Amino acid sequence: MRVAVLSDVHGNLVGLDACLADLEAQGGADAVFAAGDLCLDGPKPKKVLQRLTQLGISAVRGNTDRYLSDPGPGSFEGVEDAQLEWTRRELGEQWLEWLRELPFAMRVGDDDNQLLIVHANPRTDDEHLWPDADEATLVRMIGDEPAAAIAFGHLHLPYARVWRGKLLVNVASAGLPKDGDPRACYAILTEREGGWEVKHRRVAFDVKKVATQLADCGIPNSVELIATLRRHRYKRLRSFIP
Question: Sign of the C-alpha dihedral, residues 218, 222, 226, 232?
């Protein structure tokens, strides 16, 4: 079985479409999954969801999808109320309900060689699993999870590592890269006897076009969102990523 997993589109239809076109050029996949954070921070939140459903792409719910679909008022982890409300208006109640009904996790394959797809880690949707996470952190986040491989996003840094015989794959971001590379990223996982093989794909997209869409769409705080898009790196990693 060959599976494509993309994550953290963040309302960037241009980036999503670039990844999907690249996947087709790579021969496609038996199934495509989206690992959450689909809408917030981008100019085309509804169109992203429409594209996913049109193509039959299954999705799990990320933390920002939860923020959007949560009926309660107030900010979530520094996300501006105005930005949440703008995105909610753009989506409408039908798509908010669609987000509300997304599962926390999805599983692919037989029990003895299973791929688990989550947003951030197998326990929560909002805690980063860094590539250098120590043993105690991995035990706390993964514990006795039986899957042979785990694919996730949330942290917009692509990596793969093996822990206790289990393949951990951060598929990074199809819409908002933050590892110093301006290209979008997704992963293709291929089931092999006794495990899974992974290949990350980096895909160029028109950053200038997305920046213009952000400037023109009316989303609050567009100047900062454009700066984040163009910086394509985490501020905390600026001394490590040139």
Answer: negative
